[in-house]
TrEMBL record:
Protein name, UniProt field: Helix-turn-helix domain-containing protein
Keyword Ribonucleoprotein: no
Domain of life (superkingdom): Bacteria
Keywords in alphabetical order: DNA-binding, Transcription, Transcription regulation
Location of the HTH araC/xylS-type domain: 187-268
Length: 284
């Protein structure tokens, strides 16, 4: 263990075939952040399109440089993708990484930039944190337990200097309502809650989060469908449960966001592992 950074309890870990997933439990949580660790003990390779999601994703390779954007430069700190990133693919082998899911309203304090600025091509965390990102990754590579790794990330986040930018309370509240409603909140009712016109609400939401309220609801719904496809649920069950008009609607949306069909996602063990990790993180 690293001196002074012992977690309250040991992380929760589960094995799924060759994959090991871990999430912190009972420790000192950072508001607005969830963490999960992934380790592929088979030494296999993977290549996936980075999908949109209702959180800013930060993936830090804890191995010898086996993870990064396909065809891109070497990553110094970690890969940062906004809630609606430009189409890009990530590839790797013998994956041993730690992923953070940062709620968009928390991005200014933890990442130093407004969330809307992250909705382009994925960035290297070093572009946001400078040398601190490389130092954190080096320490994560040296750490051998998930407990130590989660503690190192908590320590790094606690040291961040907040940005002067703030997401409007009304925009943050609308975001949380869309999240809590799984993307099925009547968007047209939201401006009236804050005494705003539709135009003002639409513009403030998009300028601060980088997507329109309607697009945010679509991403939240899609993410929930993606997680459910990684379980034993059938494509038809997922479409009905999440609120798609029919299987064709789900098919079009998943294909558009991932470049793959719902059936291909459902049969890919990688998505089962991903779904398991974030289910554990949500309940820990």
């Amino acid at each position: 263990m690293l001196a002074g950074m012992r977690a309250d309890t040991a992380p929760t870990t589960q094995d799924h075939g060759a994959w090991e997933v871990a999430v912190p439990t009972g420790g000192r949580a950072i508001p607005g952040v969830r963490m999960a660790g992934f380790r592929d003990r088979s030494g296999g390779t993977f290549e996936e399109r980075i999908p949109p999601g209702p959180a800013i994703a930060i993936v830090i390779d804890c191995g010898p440089g086996g993870l990064g954007p396909l065809g891109g430069a070497a990553v110094e700190g970690g890969i940062v993708a906004g809630i609606c990133p430009a189409a890009a693919r990530m590839a790797g082998r013998a994956i041993d990484c730690l992923e953070l899911q940062v709620d968009p309203p928390a991005a200014p304090d933890l990442l130093g930039v407004p969330p809307a600025e992250l909705n382009g091509a994925p960035l290297d965390l070093a572009e946001l944190w400078g040398r601190d990102a490389g130092r954190l990754r080096a320490r994560l590579i040296e750490a051998r337990s998930w407990d130590d790794r989660f503690a190192l990330v908590r320590e790094a986040l606690a040291r961040r200097r907040p940005s002067p930018f703030r997401v409007d309370p009304e925009v943050a509240d609308a975001w949380w309502r869309i999240r809590a409603g799984h993307g099925r909140v009547p968007i047209g009712d939201l401006p009236g809650r804050y005494g705003w016109s539709r135009t003002r609400f639409w513009n403030r939401f998009k300028s601060q989060l980088g997507v329109t309220p309607k697009r945010a609801a679509m991403i939240v719904r899609f993410d929930r469908a993606l997680r459910r496809l990684g379980t034993a649920a059938s494509v038809a069950e997922v479409a009905a449960e999440i609120g798609y008009a029919d299987q064709s609607h789900l098919h079009r949306e998943v294909l558009g966001f991932t470049g793959r069909t719902p059936g291909a996602i459902a049969s890919d063990p990688l998505w089962t592992v991903d779904s398991t990790a974030w289910t554990l993180a949500h309940t820990a």
